[in-house]
Write a structure and sequence with these properties.
Elements: H1 15-18, E1 33-35, H2 41-54, H3 66-78, E2 83-88, E3 91-100, E4 110-117, H4 126-139, E5 145-151, H5 157-165, E6 169-180, E7 183-193
Parallel strand pairs: 4-5
Antiparallel strand pairs: 1-2, 2-3, 3-4, 5-7, 6-7
Amino acid sequence: MLTFAPPSPAAHVGASSVHPLRSAGHAPHVPPVRLADPADLPAIQVLYAHHVLQGLASFEEIPPDVDELRARLAAVQAAGLPYLVAEIDGQVVGFAYASLYRARSAYRHTVEDSVYVAPGWAGRGIGAALLGEVIRWCEAGPWRQMLAVVGQGDENAGSMALHERMGFERIGALRSVGFKKGRWLDTGLMQRPLGAGSATLPVSIPVGQPR
């Protein structure tokens, strides 16, 4: 049975050496957000497995193991993108990251966000704190658009509302593209510009390079 145990002690990545995180001096009501590192992966694996097995926030059906999550973390970091955790009283209560939207080079200025909050911790500002930092990080880089692909339905209404509060617009839907828990599932597409968006030409990212 999956349980949420406190994560292994993690060496916090110094924000000054990688990227500034606004929540380093967080107010009491704002969950502290920091860069994830490999020591967080066991806690992240348990948290994410809950969403894979119990809900529709993820379209995966078999929870990835820690080794797979380690590879995913490395890929996000190699692209210069954020992979963050929210931690309260030594427990990882949420994580979020941005990833390249598509592999083909013309998409290189567009990213997609993913946000997951531990069961029992929804409604406490954790998702907003994580997503806000992901957006801020990406706006400081060469990326110009952020997408969210959110499973539609009552279970994901909170995620849709969160993204709308953070400046995303609903731009469309893909009908019956997923099949999980014995039912066909739609996904909603949401988008927000980063920085100047399409108003100016982007800082060049060489073709074939992630950043």
